[in-house]
Amino acid sequence: MPLVNKRIGENDNCPIKKWIGIFLLLFTAHNVFAQTNNDTSSTNLEPIKVYYNRWERKINEVPNRITKFNFKEQRLQNPQTMADAIELTGEVFVQKSQMGGGSPMIRGFATNRVLIVVDGVRMNNAIYRSGNLQNIISFDPLALQDAEVIFGPGSLMYGSDAIGGVMDFHTLETKLAANNKTIVLGDALVRYASANNEKTGHANINIAGKKLSFLTSFTSSEFSDLQMGKNGGQDIYLRKEYIERINNQDVVLQNANPYLQKNTGYHQNNLLAKLRYKPSEHWDIQYGYHYSKTGNIPRYDRLIEYASGNLRFAEWNYGPQFWTMQNVHIQHKKNTTLYNEAKIVVAYQQYQESRIDRRRNNNNQRTQTENVDATSINLDFTKSLTDKEEIFYGAEWIGNIVGSTATNLNIANNVQTRVATRYPDGASWNSFAVYSSYKKEINDQLNFSGGLRYNTGQTKASFDTTFFKFPFTESNIQNNSVTGNIGLVYKANERLQINALISTGFRMPNIDDIGKVFESAPGNVVVPNTNLRSEYAWNYELGLQYNQPEKLNYYISIFTTSLRHALTNRPFTFNGQDSIFYDGTNSRVNAIQNIANAKVWGIQLGWELFLNKYTKWQSKLNWIDGHETDDVKNEQVPLRHAPPLFGSSAIQWQKKQCTIEVNTQFNGQINSANLAPSEKAKTAIYAVDNTGNPYAPSWYTINIKASYTIGKMQVHIGWENITNQRYRPYSSGIVAAGSNIITSLRYSF
Predict the structure, then answer these.
(1) Looking only at Cα atoms, what is the longest distance across the chain?
(2) Which of these, 21, 97, 447, 718, could form a disulfide with 705 (CB 3.0-4.6 Å)?
(3) How confident is the model at residue 323, as a pLDDT?
(4) What kind and span of H or E run contains 476?
(5) Which residues of 105-120 are buried (b: 16+ CB within 10 A; e: fewer)?
(6) Using CA atoms in the order 541, 544, 547, 552, what is the torsion angle rounded to 10 degrees?
């Protein structure tokens, strides 16, 4: 399966011509299938509903490309983390610097340019960075009811950061009894995976009456070091040596099993509790509590870095990652002058992360700890003006306070000293917005939607000059943004619809942008910049969807997004100097600046073909390309977060209690010429081509999954990467799992 990712214009065999041909083929395909099958009984099925405009709406009324997956689908695949779960959609690419991680890339954007929402509350906070993030693993895929990915800018409803897309997760629903009889529902699960000796236990229970309901869920997972595959791939991927502390000395040891990625294991616990009270048909009140905590997570891509021919770090861990969220949802449904439905969501989150690193043969262990307190209030209303017109409107307030501390511990004599913090301690990030959206059914075939949002925000920080003689002591940045969208949905017939959308998005500078001091790469240090403004994106897309339930479904979306005033890491001066000593090394000075532009374009394509009443074939393919301003030179270079051609294909057979699926996951190649310069610098994680330059090879896996239900018991077994391929996904620090047997047993009551 030769898979190659090339840039448009690289040769005369332009990929866009092929995609246009596919688009035209699919556009006419509905006539062929309609003629060969006259059974239209299934067309009366209710369309899928999504939480677009913060309210549940039919997907065939929405101009955006949206993909949705649910709890039942996740059971068969058995993802270990939420990063794995979102990757299994086949439409989101996930990068991993370590096993306890996962940084989603959506339409060429990632990290603080994509938004995570959990139960209606934004998870992105004031220290979300442009580098790869692992925050998505904080919540539990076994506590997931359903989720959806909204592709393209979602700033109209969700504000800052929603440029590439929005990942909207909904945790287990608290169900109410239909009568006065108390009901008890729940699940218990145990799971084992061979590639990293995963041991997971999970249980959830829902106790409910007619008006009052309580739900709780708990999951504990333990992961050992990850085993890579043995076939294909280069020997550069092998973990040949590692460092252990023996008799107060850092000793380099030869790895007896170089396919075992030493120092990748970690553990994690998750707790969810919900209380729901519905006193009448008009009122619904819910309280939710989320808790997540990991152990130390070794950052594998740093542990395999070399300097002067030797391993650079003796230890590099993300310290225990801690996240809690408390939220209250109050919903009122009643036709009034101002609204038909009203909702208020008040949330408070606490987040803690830390970095613990120590260089080889250095006794100084540095620990940087960050705490974020995040409060948010959302007011959302919907009002039907006529039977064909509806408006959505609301307001949002967000407040973040950042605490940042740092110490050095001499592990030889246990003497602890203060060192420079990563962020200015006590910094704040606040945002206030109002929005309004309008939807009109022009006729039976054409729907129009549009809206505007006004957002104002403030980023404040005070800088400690103890360790760095900053040329400033305070920063107070005010940013105002107006964003909106216009969309059309044209229903050619009861099965075929065409969507067109123009949308905008923005990202307001946060504390990570204006205030951090850190080593971005060996010999490069990032310093604060107090003169920043918001990034702004324009997005244009055209989509086609065909839906003949239980016969044929397909979609194709073509899009392009331009990002202006992009914040990027570029050379800078500090007190008039272009280099300073940082952590004992003379380092070039860089800072985040509004001097870049980026452009992304691509195609998303997928289909679901029902071969018979028991068997279906589903495939998804994503081609994304783009360019952005280089970090060093003022020129356009390949886009860092544009992944290679990627997708999945699966054939699933389901009959009564039994389901069997055979699938393949695959990625194309990015050759050295098309690799972003910032990626080329990461020589420790990339393969080497025939000319000695880094590149990302293509890869594929073949997998089989099966489940069987016996009464209240459900048995799952899967064999992933059957051919034991050795591969490292694009931009990832860790090599993916080799041949992996997954077994789980679930009991439902």
Answers:
(1) 82
(2) 718
(3) 98
(4) strand 474-491
(5) bbbbbbbbbbbbbbbb
(6) -120
Both ends of the chain: CA-CA distance in Å? 44
Residue 36: which H helix or E strand, with range?
A: helix 15-36
Give tens-digit pLDDT for 291-301: 999 999 999 99
Distance CA 123, CA 323 (A): 10
Give the model's pLDDT for residue 708.
Answer: 97
DSSP string, 666-716: EE-EE-GGGS-HHHHT-TTTSEE-TTS-EEB--EEEEEEEEEEEETTEEEE
Residue whose structure tokens are 């460092």: 243
pLDDT recorded at residue 449? 96
Of 103, 123, 128, 98, nearest to 295 (Cα)? Answer: 98
Helix (H, G, I), strand (E, B) or coil at 512: helix
pLDDT of residue 29: 43
How confident is the model at residue 28, as a pLDDT? 42
Q: Provide, for the chain, the percentages of residues in helix, strand and coil under a 3-state DSSP scheme, each rounded to the nearest 5.
A: 10, 55, 35
Rounded to whole angstroms, the Cα distance separating 372 from 481 reads 24
Q: Which amino acid is at 530?
A: T
DSSP 725: B
What single string gives the DSSP state of each residue in 567-583? EEEEE--BTTBSEEEET
H or E segment and range at residue 443:
none
Q: Which amino acid is at 37?
A: N
Return the residue matching tokens 């959830």: 204
CA distances from 126 to 100, 122, 553, 559, 596 (A): 22, 11, 40, 29, 21
Q: How far apart are CA 548 and CA 554, in angstroms?
A: 9
What residues of the chain score a pLDDT lower than 50? 1-44
- φ, ψ at 512 (rounded to 5°): -65, -35
Backbone phi and psi for residue 461, each to the nearest 5 degrees, phi listed first: -155, 150
| Burial class (CB within 10 angstroms; exposed 0-12, middle 13-18, buried 19+) of 265 | buried
Residue 414 falls in which region: left (phi positive, over 0), alpha (psi -120 to 50) or beta: left
The CB-based long-range contact list for 187-192 (8 Å cut-off, 24+ gap) reads 187/746, 187/747, 187/748, 187/749, 188/746, 188/747, 189/142, 189/744, 189/745, 189/746, 189/747, 190/744, 190/745, 191/78, 191/742, 191/743, 191/744, 191/745, 192/742, 192/743, 192/744
Provide the residue count of the chain: 749
Phi, psi for 679 (deg, rounded to 5): -80, -35
Neighbour count for residue 14 (Cβ, 10 Å):
13
